[in-house]
Amino acid sequence: MTPRFPAFGGISAFVILTLFSPLYSQSFGKNHVQYKSFKARYLQSRHFDIYFHTGGESLAEFTAEVAEQSYEMLRSDFHYELHDRITIVVYNSHNDFQQTNLSLGPPEEAVGGFTEFFKNRVVVPYDSDWEKFRHVIHHELTHAVMLQMVYGSGVQAILTGLSRVQMPLWFIEGLAEYESRGWDTESDMFMRDAALNGYVPAINDLSRYGFLAYKGGQAVLYYLAQRYGPEKISELLSRVKITKSLERAVRQSLGIEIEDLSKRWHQHLRKQYWPDIANRQEPQEIGTPLTDHVAYRNFINNSAALSPNGDQVAFLSDKSDYFDIYLMSTLDGKIISKLVSGQKTDNLEELHWLRPGISWSPDGTHIVFAAKAGAQDALHLVDVRQEKIVRSLKFRLDGVFSPAWSPRGDEIAFVGMHNGQSDLYAVDLSTEQLRPLTQDVFSDLDPSYSPDGARLAFVSDRGSHLVADSLSPDFKIWRSDYRNLDVYLVEAKGAASGGKITRLTNTPSQEKSPVFSPQGDKLVFTSDRSGIANLYLHDLATQTEYPITNVISGIFHLSWAGEGSRLTFVSFFNGGYDVYLLKNPLDLQPGMIQLEKTAFLEALEARRAAQPDSVAVTATGRRAEDGPEKYRQYVFGKDFANGIVQPRPERVALGDSTQYKSANGEYLVRDYKTKFTPDIVYGNAGYSQFFGVQGQTQISLSDVLGDHRIDFITDLFYDIRNSNYLVRYFHLPRRTDYGIGAFHNAWYFYSSPSGLMRDRYYGLSLFASRPFSTFRRLEAGATWLAINREFLHQNGTPVRRLRLVLGNLAYVTDTALWGWTGPNNGSRSELAVSFSPKIAAHNGLGFFTVRGDVRRYYKFFQEYNFVLRFAGGFSEGSEPQQFYLGGLDNWLNQRFKGGLRIDRPEDIYFASFETPLRGTDYYEKTGNRFMLLNLEFRYPMIRQLLLGWPLPLALENVRGTLFTDLGAAWRGELGRREDFQPFRRSGSAVPRLHDVQMGYGLGARANLGILLFRLDLAWKTNLRQASSKPRYYFSLGAEL
Fold first, then answer.
1. What is the per-residue pLDDT for 40?
2. Is the separation of the CB atoms in 786 and 1002 below 8 Å?
3. Contact (Cβ atoms closer than 8 angstroms) between residue 485 and residue 503
4. Rounded to an integer, what distance in angstroms lies between the CA atom of residue 826 and that of residue 858?
5. Do residues 143 and 437 lie in contact, with contact meaning Cβ atoms separated by under 8 Å?
6. Which homologous superfamily does the CATH classification assign to the domain defined by 289-462+484-586?
7. Is residue 630 pLDDT above 80, yes or no?
8. Is the CB of residue 414 less than 8 Å from the CB of residue 403?
């Protein structure tokens, strides 16, 4: 994953965080939920400290071995020795990984791991497949090693390095993919599709194109390695460190500009892939397209499952931006209904689109699928006619996916994860009893029942290990060949109960998604043995197999029904995944399809034939063993005489083996102890003969797992009374997060009657947040606050002192998805209560406030949005809070009706500014009641605009908006008639707005990378007439 580049706001960030809420809290946003209370331990290898949780010791050992192997490759490729040890945090599953406190928000399903910048911590989950786990470890370690190599070790070195050297995303992620994979059939598929369909961008633009930042970057570096030799990658990285620029590094290393390199790379791709057009078929030439990601303007349509008679297909799609399950007719290709709306409710947090699986009941009335449902995954059973979930099954497992419904209807098989182990399970639907079908260290995936329910087909990395309990006690998965997947059969009673496992394929390629023919005599599966994942048909009687497709891109996720006449598959083509229907696959006989190897495989074999003595280094960091070549996983090395070789530093991050392993070679496991180390240390200081000592300091500390955090921020000026400072502590390891803090601020104001004033604003705060799910939470806080107002120009004027206790409680929901300039789909809401009791005559304010805010975002035609937002509130008590209605948040050219109100501290610190009400000023209306309605239509205004001389500027994705704002604020009191008159009539059929304010207009929003700029033109109206000239609003920040 992309390393996180933090943003620093200096003392301005301090002001933002502390002005109104001494402890940080967010009004909206999804939740980071710790469903579990983790107990951490750790072990060490020569260069790494690996932290893990209960049940994850085998994962930690695997990580230690693979990390050391990966580092050996990185050390050789980069000519660099680590100076400091690297921390790796391992989670037993992706569900556990999403609970990590090492990221600010919960990692989404697409995030397979990340590298944290300041402490150079690698964070990875095990996700059922050992080879994928190895890849993620190597990928993230590439980031960590590169980080130390380019930026140095320690917080200060990283901060300094980040300000001097910033590498583009495509180079960062492309290098990690290249080092961890070399080149493989999956990467080949993505780049072939991009080249043939004409969407390969220039190298400098790769970072803007999603997966092409990864795969395109990998392809560029693979091209450089093939043309100039692998040493050129090391040279390029070294020159980036020296020149502080990738463009200059390319110029010095290759002798050409990066634009010329881009042209040469594009030419290489055309030569590599265009010949495939004549020799292979596009997926729509093989099967009938049932979905169209181009028309839907989406990316994913997968996990297709045919109904038993084949006339309907259920599939997973993100066509609404959320992942949903749709029902479609295979007869006319029309969508019948949406069966499941995902990612908006607690029991459908994620629909496992990367590990999909939908299966039908034998009678065709229900489907089953797996989803993240709060603390655990669940199997959800959906009544197709009622279009609702009628039953959910949860188990004591770390992950659940890929369900398969037995033809007998009595049980469902699925892949389950527990304590870092992936196995097949079956659940009895009448008793909900769970039984393991396999129970060993190997990855077992993609289960599918035979038509009689007696056997299951699946894929596994178990190789020749077919007998349960046959592994020796000292067997270690990292010593076996876990790199490729083959097809196996297991009796329905399961290998764990004595059932027999039979191996059907034994190839160096990747076999996946095996499904039986409706008659049960044949099996179809995908295999990339030609370099592209195609369909292969296996005759179970003769044990022969042959290809039945010759697709130009990959094929995935198979389903076969309708007496064998209909087979659905998913294929990637033209930048997206779609579902296709293949009719009568059994009509394709042996020999009808002849597959040629891809140029990638042919070049690979030619290179090995020309250099028989060269060493092939597998992607696991081991020398290749005798036997079939694992083409998908190879990275070939070759010495080049002109590469840059750096001398190795004297100090290296080594550990004595006696310190991390026992006498018999087992890793020593130690208990985790909380220890604080710095995340950020920033400061400067000076002295003035007029103003004394001045300085700014920011120190952030946390433990290794991020469960405990301490922040200290200060802006020292002259003396303690004139300075700002904050100290706070967060306790995050449990489901309920707690915080405590102390703060002091000195604010200066000037008014004509009072002269220069200083407010000392200080106190203590407590904060708690209890998330119920990713989408819902309850927040509470309490603050003891003191305000001393000093009149610096009026000697003898007594200091006004205000002491009070503030309390707040809020219920927050958020299912919104974000676009380029703000939320664009879903909903957000907040219901908040705040209060301050009257303690004495001069202490406490004596108010009770209720405020609500509901926002709904409707998206249509992908790029167009309608936004509806309503907010309202009231405050009661002896000194109720005031609502200031008008203006716009973060308004740069701000205007205040009646001037800035600073004479009373209550007007500064306890009033609530309610925006946006464009067409008006701040303080347009004031009261202890308010309501505000915002209506917006958002649309793409400028897709791309390139300006030349004299202002070379590029604008992209500029969004336009048409808006209407309607609001009112008034004074009232419970039990009395409200003094509020929305309209007033005076001799006209059209009423005139009275207490209600209204504005309308248009605007534009541009995401400039470092900030989001907004421009609005608004007219104020009372329905009878409008202002003759628009009011211009320049502001910053995301849309509401």
1. 96
2. no
3. no
4. 7
5. no
6. TolB, C-terminal domain (2.120.10.30)
7. no
8. yes
Amino acid code (one letter) for 676: F
CB-CB contact of 752 with 794 (8 Å): no
The pLDDT of residue 442: 96
- Which of 217, 115, 225, 226 is CA-nearest to residue 167? 217
Q: What is the maximum span of the chain, computed from C-alpha positions, in angstroms?
A: 105
- Report the distance separating Cα 194 and Cα 415, nearest Å: 33
Delimit the domains of the chain by residue range: 40-164+652-671, 167-279+596-623+631-640, 289-462+484-586, 862-1040
DSSP sequence for 254-283: HSS-HHHHHHHHHHHHHHHHTTHHHHSB-H
Q: Residues 192, 273: contact at Cβ < 8 Å?
A: yes
Which is nearest to 485 in space by CA: 472, 471, 504, 467? 504
Pairwise CA distance, residues 116 & 102, whole Å: 7
Which residues are within 8 A (CB) of 409 and not within 5 positions of it... i.e. 6 or more apart? 361, 362, 363, 429
Structure tokens at 58: 């085998």
Phi then psi for residue 120, to 5 deg, are 55, 45
Q: What is the 3-state secondary structure (H, E, C) of 833-859?
A: EEEECCCECCECCCEEEEEEEEEEEEE
Q: Tokens for 1016?
A: 């609005």
Structure tokens at 954: 């590029």
- Please give the Cα distance from 364 to 305 (Å, whole number): 11
CATH topology for the 40-164+652-671 domain: Zincin-like (3.30.2010)
User: pLDDT (tens digit, 9 = 90+) per residue, 810-841?
Assistant: 999 999 999 989 999 999 999 999 999 988 77
The C-alpha torsion from 908 through 909 and 910 to 915, rounded to 10°, is 60
**What does the pLDDT look like over 903-938, one tens digit per residue?**
888 888 999 999 999 999 999 999 999 999 999 999
Contacts 24+ apart (CB under 8 A), 94-98: 94/125, 94/127, 94/399, 95/35, 95/372, 95/375, 95/376, 95/377, 95/398, 95/399, 96/36, 96/38, 96/53, 96/125, 96/398, 97/123, 97/124, 97/125, 98/33
Under DSSP, the state recorded for 397 is -
At residue 567, φ and ψ (nearest 5 deg) are -135, 125
Q: Which residues contact 83 (CB under 8 A, 6 or more apart)?
A: 148, 152, 153, 649, 651, 652, 653
**How much helix, strand and coil, in percent to the nearest 5, is found in the chain?**
20, 40, 40
Amino acid at 801: R
| E strand or H helix that includes residue 708 | strand 708-717
Question: In this structure, are residues 550 and 280 in contact, taking their beta carbons and an 8 Å threshold?
Answer: yes
The three-state DSSP-derived secondary structure of 142-194 is HHHHHHHHHHCCCHHHHHHHHHHCCCCHHHHHHHHHHHHHCCCHHHHHHHHHH
Task: Classify the C-alpha dihedral 561-430-352-55 as positive or negative.
Answer: negative
Long-range contacts of residues 335-339, Cβ cutoff 8 Å, at least 24 apart? 336/312, 337/387, 338/387, 339/314, 339/367, 339/382, 339/384, 339/387
Phi-psi category of 507—alpha, beta or left, where left has phi over 0 and alpha has psi -120 to 50?
beta
Show Cβ contacts of residue 235 under 8 Å, excluding neighbours closer than 6 positions.
Answer: 253, 643, 644
First to last CA, the chain: 28
